[in-house]
Amino acid sequence: MIALNNTRYHAAISVLSEMLVFAAPSDATMSRFFRSNPNLGGQDRHMIAECVYGILRNKIRLEWVLGGPANARSLLTAYLVVVERRNLRECGGDWFPDTEKDNFALCKSKKLAEAPVYVRADLPEWVVNDLIAGGMNDADILALGAGLQGAAALDLRVNSLKAKREQVAAELLDVGGVETTPTPYSPWGLRVTGKPAINKYRAFTEGRVEVQDEGSQLLGLLTGAKRGQMVVDFCAGAGGKTLLLGAMMHSSGRLYAFDVSEKRLNNFKPRLARSGLSNVSAQLISSENDQKIKRLVGKIDSVLVDAPCSGMGTVRRNPDLKFRQNPASVLELNAMQTSILASASRLVKSAGRLVYATCSFLPSENEAIVEAFLAANPDFKLLDAPELLKAEQVEIALTGPYFKLSPHLHQADAFFAAVMQRD
Ligand SMILES: C[S@@+](CC[C@H](N)C(=O)[O-])C[C@H]1O[C@@H](n2cnc3c(N)ncnc32)[C@H](O)[C@@H]1O
What we know:
- By secondary structure, this protein is an alpha/beta fold.
- It has 19 helices and 12 strands.
- The chain folds into 3 domains: 6-115, no CATH class; 154-211, Alpha-Beta Plaits (2-Layer Sandwich); 220-422, 3-Layer(aba) Sandwich (Rossmann fold), CATH 3.40.50.
- Helix 5 (72-82) packs across helix 6 and helix 12 packs across helix 13.
- The termini are far apart.
- S-adenosylmethionine is lined by residues 234-241, 258-261, 264, 285, 287-288, 306, 308, 336, 340.
- Keywords: Methyltransferase, RNA-binding, S-adenosyl-L-methionine, Transferase.
- Belongs to the class I-like SAM-binding methyltransferase superfamily. RsmB/NOP family.
- Residues 144-423 form the SAM-dependent MTase RsmB/NOP-type domain.
């Protein structure tokens, strides 16, 4: 139970009211709020953050219980009843206003078990409709929804160019008391106990580890990138996956990192410097059809398209994404995804690989894009992702030919990848 008091109760309502506009990512709103309220101590901040993120995670259920869209104060009341299961007696003290007592009683009277599936899964109705259109049943939707409510772990990837996993684990423990365990599937992964600031350790500043979720690490294996190859990371962003591909290539061959965002590519520079890689060419492109990529047509062994997406698979870390995305924004993304995949595919040489990935679980951003691409490009065929991982000694329970991770099954963010090969 969150230890509320007058200050924390009012601060939580204040910051949540700002967040509910969804004009900015909620973590940015939270940081700004704490900066402008320096009187709040460490414990206060912790409790306020717990309370506010707990409300965002459960907002759909809380609003159903309240009977419709609600303000921050009512949501907090519903949170105390529905999530914390408090009695009115436990909301004693000066902080719980008499005016909220009716809301309290209303929330107590509602039975969540009677709510529609989208409410019980705490996913927007349009998201659940997308899942149903993709063939998911109610039980799986509820399991996915429950998994997305959980806490996300902090995963590290050991840079195989510079160190071994056991060495880095020992170093982190020795230097900072940071406890880690090997990730269940990735050969380079370490799962950190708690959330220590890894960037202050030399293992990080000297490029022996990077922060990277396990799903992204496994994606590297699916590209099959090897020593001496020509590889393209088409949507490289700040280069998280580029660094992994470069390490898999032993810093040999040529690795092109393209992106339309100068800011993201600039953020990649210090990471690249730390990594020790010397085979990377990072290039800003104006669009997926930029002239710069023309000279690479038909020459690339493996092309990764880590497409711009709704990010819905990361709602454990960013619960506000559920409310910052909508059917129209996803439709816009679908058009981009289709166009980027089509353009990037031109670079793949005969028998080369094309990997399409998103950090989303929406079938409209995943299977639908890949199926349409394959239908329009019969020279590409779908490979079996679980088989490819098995060949890399990764045994992971997956159904179907795609690489689909879910938090409730794989203790990772939801993630999707399809591996294709040009005939
Ligand atoms: C999911 S993020 C990539 C994250 C990155 N691969 C990583 O591991 O850190 C998608 C990226 O696609 C980029 N992007 C958007 N439109 C693009 C386009 N038309 N061509 C290439 N990249 C694009 C965005 O700037 C963004 O950096």
